[in-house]
Fold each of these.
Amino acid sequence: MEMLKVSQLSKSYGKQVMFSALNHISFSIEAGELVGVMGPSGSGKTTLLNMISTVDQPTSGEIYIEGNNPLSLNGDKLALFRRRELGFVFQDFNLLDTLTLGENVILPLALDGVPVKEQDRRLTKVANILGIKHLLSKRTFEVSGGEAQRTAIARAIIHKPALLLADEPTGNLDSNASRIVMELFEKINQEEQVTTMMVTHDPLAASYCNRILFIKDGSIYNEIYKGSSRQQFYQQIIDVLSLLGGASREF
Ligand SMILES: Nc1ncnc2c1ncn2[C@@H]1O[C@H](COP(=O)(O)OP(=O)(O)OP(=O)(O)O)[C@@H](O)[C@H]1O
């Protein structure tokens, strides 16, 4: 089943002088996939994520999430769609400092009026999956970046979204914390069938995905699938990035 379908999506910025950030991009993500999006700085990755997460409108083209077109919704209906069908993980965690980590995780359920007993049941489940049960009464300043990101992932999946969107989820983490976070993305993908699309500059993080879409100048440049070995996939990713051009720090 197609979880995400992007059809002929284009986005231009500017009025007198138009700049085309995305040019007729089309691709799909099937239920249960873990897909990475890579490309040089300025290639359009954030623009694409902003269209899919419905925070911005495309100039033309269509987006379907589980067969629904969120761009046809507005106001409260769009906010509700975003809250129920999408989960977000950001580079800088975006946790609320005034709440405990546990309160942060249940926020999407509390906003949706889910009964407290059900909130507690789901909190226990995701806290076990993400290994953060012992941290739930702590606050953001009392935990490491890796622990904060694991909390953010728990919050992003507690309401069982159709699609989990992640923007540079390892961008603020050291290599050890990055590996743990990526193993958890892999685990929730494999064990909980969470369909995920992740923008990343980090080839090691990308090697945990099943498929990578490479974007260059607002168009799909290439896509590669993981075979049996993550190490081999990592090397393939490095090879495509070097073909894409640009200094490695630009990725
Ligand atoms: N609001 C905007 N107005 C005008 N141009 C924009 C706007 N947002 C992005 N752009 C331009 O669109 C292009 C794509 O930007 P985008 O942020 O999507 O790239 P990116 O691949 O996410 O880059 P990075 O890896 O550096 O975050 C860039 O050339 C950028 O300058």
Amino acid sequence: MFEQLALIGCGLMGGSFALALKKAGLVKRVVGYSKSPSTTERARALGVIDVEAPSALLAVSGADIVLIAVPVAATESTFRAIKHLVTSQMLIMDVGSTKRDVIEAGRRALRDHFGSFVPAHPIAGKEVSGVENADADLYTGRQIILTPTERTLTTQLQKAVAVWTALGCQVQQMSPEQHDASFAAVSHLPHMLAFALMNSITGQSQGADYLSLAGPGFRDFTRIAASDPKVWRDILLANREELQTQVRVFRDSLQAFEQLIAQGDNQALETLIGQASQARAAWTMTSKPTH
Ligand SMILES: NC(=O)c1ccc[n+]([C@@H]2O[C@H](COP(=O)([O-])OP(=O)(O)OC[C@H]3O[C@@H](n4cnc5c(N)ncnc54)[C@H](O)[C@@H]3O)[C@@H](O)[C@H]2O)c1
Ligand SMILES: O=C(O)C(=O)C[C@]1(C(=O)O)C=C[C@H](O)C=C1
């Protein structure tokens, strides 16, 4: 049981964490801060936070758990803003979609207290952002990836595992390098492709007409294209090297299809589609049973 959660970034992910902790009876008080005062106010009006803080530093005052849930490029300034009130007893976590950049930001800004920070990435989310969409059950049954460093304190790591487990998550640990390479392939590239596809259609003179005819296949493929521009700008840039590698691999795969349709090679085309179809049919999302 925690006394006080300091929530920095009262949006979809942070708000959902606050609601989940409250629902599980794991926190007495949530003090929140978001960059825009109207967001912090809305978070309190919605019951996501109990107290509005005028700064990140004041939100952390008296907290025993801190969640940083801001776009990844805002992580370093957030660490710098709170560093004077960080203690070695505090559990500090983030929810950023990239990990190497966030860890380096923590190392630079937190210095002696870097060990209190447990880098975390929940594999849960939505294409809609903001505190209005916060959901107490967002994390239930989902994976959470922790990427502790050589300096992460064992007590803090154990507390982090316990909190996410109590919220019904399946906890996995890996290196930040393995994390960023993996999520470039299965999250960052798919988002970029969805953005690019939307733009490629809307950029055509007939684009609006084509879109008016689209059905469930298009809806499923492009759901994530509606995601928040600032959040995704930061993710794509933070993980640019791994993402560029995945773009090259994808381009080869697309080119193989392009060549086969140009050649009218129906046998080879069926084989390529068959590989994809089998792999997708065999794939299930890793999740934890919630009963
Ligand atoms: N959306 C998803 O599906 C998803 C999934 C997993 C992880 N994440 C990660 O979660 C983090 C938050 O994303 P979100 O979807 O909750 O976005 P969001 O836009 O819903 O929430 C972000 C909040 O941070 C606030 N903010 C921005 N800069 C700030 C600053 N400097 N100081 C304080 N507050 C600031 C914004 O006002 C907003 O309230 C990102 O790092 C993202 O990579 C998102
Ligand atoms: O469900 C969605 O809308 C998501 O995009 C969730 C999703 C993903 O699966 O790619 C997005 C970003 C993450 O950091 C983790 C999860």
